[in-house]
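In response to the reviewer comment on reproducibility (Comment 2.3), we provide here a single inverse folding case reported in full, input and output, so that an independent group could reproduce the run without further information from us. The structure tokens appear first.
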């Protein structure tokens, strides 16, 4: 190869290496934007989590009456969510049944100001149908937090303390979406039947929402694997998780 040609080739290689080095150096100096979790910064100060707990009667040696929860969510909590939609920043439901001091409960948990909490609790305590259910023994009591004492101001204050902090802070948004979906399903199932022959007595309410609960259970059993669990699994790249039986499971 002629010396001039060889020199040209050598200079071309040197120039290419310089471009690569400069490019790498410039990429190394690129600063990424500070990105914070969405939603969390929008929560106003002075707000916090509040609980309204419905203690549902659960006689010994009987199964829990689960159909009371769809009734309470649809007929009592749903109107409150509509009335305070601009005041409640986060919310969710919690259902439990265990033979312990807490027993059988349906809880409405929400993040708002103490003033909003006071208004909601006053409405719940004066709710006529809930009062009728207390008098008939279906509901033992409705217990609300003291709106004058804010004890859970942080986004993670009602999350499981055994979780990583990142999950504690993100989980309230997830479970609110789940609760909204559950309430929407109840509303659609119930409204289809309420239009024709709405229940007017406590006994008819029990029968009606027992049917609603059975339909909800059927939807979960038949559609839950794909509509809910599969698509949640997809968000995490279909990676398996360790299930209660300590084995990997995908949906």
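Designed residues, in position order:
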């Amino acid at each position: 190869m002629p010396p001039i040609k060889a020199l040209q080739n050598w200079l071309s290689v040197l120039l290419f290496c310089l471009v690569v080095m400069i490019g790498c150096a410039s990429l190394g100096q690129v600063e990424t934007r500070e990105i914070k979790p969405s939603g969390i910064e929008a929560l106003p100060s002075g707000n916090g989590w509040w609980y309204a707990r419905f203690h549902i009667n659960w006689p010994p040696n009987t199964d829990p009456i689960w159909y009371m929860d769809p009734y309470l969510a649809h007929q009592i909590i749903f109107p409150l969510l509509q009335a305070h939609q601009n005041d409640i920043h986060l919310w969710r439901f919690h259902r439990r049944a265990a033979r312990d001091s807490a027993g059988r409960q349906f809880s409405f948990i929400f993040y708002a100001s103490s003033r909003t909490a006071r208004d909601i609790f006053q409405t719940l305590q004066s709710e006529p149908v809930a009062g009728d259910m207390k008098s008939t023994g279906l509901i033992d009591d409705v217990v609300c937090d003291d709106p004058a004492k804010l004890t859970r101001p942080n986004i993670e204050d009602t999350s499981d303390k055994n979780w990583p902090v990142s999950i504690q802070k993100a989980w309230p948004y997830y479970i609110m979406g789940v609760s909204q979906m559950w309430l929407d399903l109840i509303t659609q199932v119930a409204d289809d039947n309420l239009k024709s022959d709405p229940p007017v007595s406590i006994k008819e309410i029990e029968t009606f929402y027992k049917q609603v609960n059975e339909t909800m259970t059927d939807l979960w059993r038949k559609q839950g694997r794909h509509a809910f669990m599969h698509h949640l699994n997809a968000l995490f790249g279909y990676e398996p998780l360790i299930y209660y039986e300590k084995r990997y499971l995908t949906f």
